[in-house]
């Protein structure tokens, strides 16, 4: 089953920091977490988060240039490395909480990013909006759920005044809703005719995780 969540980044090819707002997130979860190989680290256990660097641009192109990975986003897939580098420099690096999703190798050291997760405070500062995207090669392996768990474990200590992180997901996408629920998010309501994605008016489900909610192992 396909999980559809997407980060709304405005209509421009190189969206500005003000537009980094969650509407949907696209991940694919065709299966549950892949079983660990004997003697290897489980894929979900290997997930780490770190700030982005300019050197990450080529790894970022793996998902930002993929039409399937960006199919439900409000911006088109990148075709220019320079345009993506400008977005990384001008929007990602100054962002208050925009992290690279990385997988540790067998030696425990993190590798190149395989995705991104952002938490963007809103104007009232007590709320923040979640966005996440993952390269297709890592769909269906528990990576997104692990990244969400690590996000809520860290973000309330990192962003002063934020008490609530919220995510909005397409109403028809049960798999993405399960991913959020597995990470401890609470389903709150259906938002009817909430947004337009690729020319289609969509109903959304809103989820939240507040600072006093228990973390999920």
Automatic annotation (TrEMBL):
<dbReference type="InterPro" id="IPR000182">
    <property type="entry name" value="GNAT_dom"/>
</dbReference>
<feature type="domain" description="N-acetyltransferase">
    <location>
        <begin position="47"/>
        <end position="203"/>
    </location>
</feature>
<dbReference type="Pfam" id="PF13302">
    <property type="entry name" value="Acetyltransf_3"/>
</dbReference>
<protein>
    <recommendedName>
        <fullName>N-acetyltransferase domain-containing protein</fullName>
    </recommendedName>
</protein>
<dbReference type="InterPro" id="IPR016181">
    <property type="entry name" value="Acyl_CoA_acyltransferase"/>
</dbReference>
<dbReference type="GO" id="GO:0016747">
    <property type="term" value="F:acyltransferase activity, transferring groups other than amino-acyl groups"/>
</dbReference>
